[in-house]
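Following up on my earlier message about coenzyme A. Here are the inputs again, as you asked, copied directly from the submission form:
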Amino acid sequence: MKQRTVKIVDDATDLNYSLPVENGTVRAMDLRQIKTGPDDFGLMTYDPAFMNTASCRSAITFIDGDRGILQYRGYPIEVLAEHCSYLEVAYLLIFGELPTQAELKNWVYDITHHTMLHETTKSFMEGFRYNAHPMGMLVSTLAALSTIYPESKHVFDAANRRHQILRLIGKMPTIAAYTYRHGLGLPYVYPDNDLSYTENFMNMLWKMVEPKYQANPVLARALDILFILHADHEQNCSTNTMRCVGSAQTDPFLSSAAAAAALAGPLHGGANEAVLVMLDEIGSKDKVPAYVKKIKEGHGKLMGFGHRVYKNYDPRAKIIKWTAEQVFEVTGRNVRLDIALELERIALQDEYFIQRKLYPNVDFYSGIIYQAMGFKPELFTVLFAIPRVAGWLAQWQEMITDPEQKISRPRQVYIGENTRDFVPLAERGTAVRR
Ligand SMILES: CC(C)(COP(=O)(O)OP(=O)(O)OC[C@H]1O[C@@H](n2cnc3c(N)ncnc32)[C@H](O)[C@@H]1OP(=O)(O)O)[C@@H](O)C(=O)NCCC(=O)NCCS
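Thanks, got it. Here's what our run produced:
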């Protein structure tokens, strides 16, 4: 097939350029040849917030935002959520194929045997203030793991990488549960290797004095589905951070800490916590129209609505809504769900939201489910981070093994002063500028 090209005419020089198009992209570096003279640096692109820039080539997650499609390694998210466990999906993300029965058995065994935290990590976590935010604790503890496993810096050693991946996926629920118990002043519960990934997490969260914790199977499966839905989402803010920090050959624990820090923001993973705050602020179903009016007048945003990529609907939100019904059969109906449903109903009929293609996203219902399960809002973003670690690691590994990758280092458009004459301190006057 004929190679597609785009032609550019530079009206500064009247020169013509022909740039090859591959996968719907032109290489930004191809623009560098477009110069006004030998001393010119060459043309660059300006793209704050990466609105139209592909930062990598990836074979992990496919999203078609206009059609509401999300696939991991070619499998639709709906199929994976229905048929797989989270660890099966984590394997798929990291290794590219669904595991065979034997592979899954080994994988689950290996992860289960990497769930313990070193006692010094436990003591480290005990040092946090009683009201420390769980995300701050998670970010710091992930970074601290780098001090326990210094060999993780050998990022080009495939066996070493696999070992650190097992550790991180294994330890995430343990760290998350400890951040929760810490806030309540409860003793930390050690992992139980007889339990599944999510049952073990629930055991570490909620076990009190009973000899064996029995997780409710509906809630354990709901959590597993939520983990599948959150496992990866291509080049979002935290994944981009993981790749960017990892591109400096930083070890995976420090890189994950940076990614988790990005996730903590309210415009990213922090949105599920913000949704709950918003629903509480609304208070009751009858106050929804007034709240929507306020948003339309420019006072704040409807949290859990809108997405940079999904401009039709977020396929994860549909599955979560279904999961919410299962959870509420166990926990009883929650008044927040009624407010959320009313909010969704009103917003989806409103021109403001229709025109801007604003639909409920993954965070809209996940917070309500978590709350019904007994989680405090402060823990919601940590619940997002547990499974997202699989995506971060898959993307990190893909980046590390990509021969085209170099250290991430964007360019800038300098808009500051030209070279200025230095004025000694004594001659700068006495004015106070604020
Ligand atoms: C997700 C989000 C950051 C995407 O932002 P974005 O792609 O940069 O989109 P923009 O901010 O340019 O939004 C486009 C328009 O929709 C409006 N808009 C976007 N999200 C909105 C929301 N949740 N409520 C009300 N208006 C919203 C913007 O004000 C803007 O309106 P304008 O064109 O009149 O200025 C944004 O939708 C948002 O802040 N949502 C709430 C937080 C959230 O749920 N985040 C979780 C994402 S999974």
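One observation from looking it over: The first helix runs from residue 77 to 83. Hope that helps, and feel free to reply on this thread.
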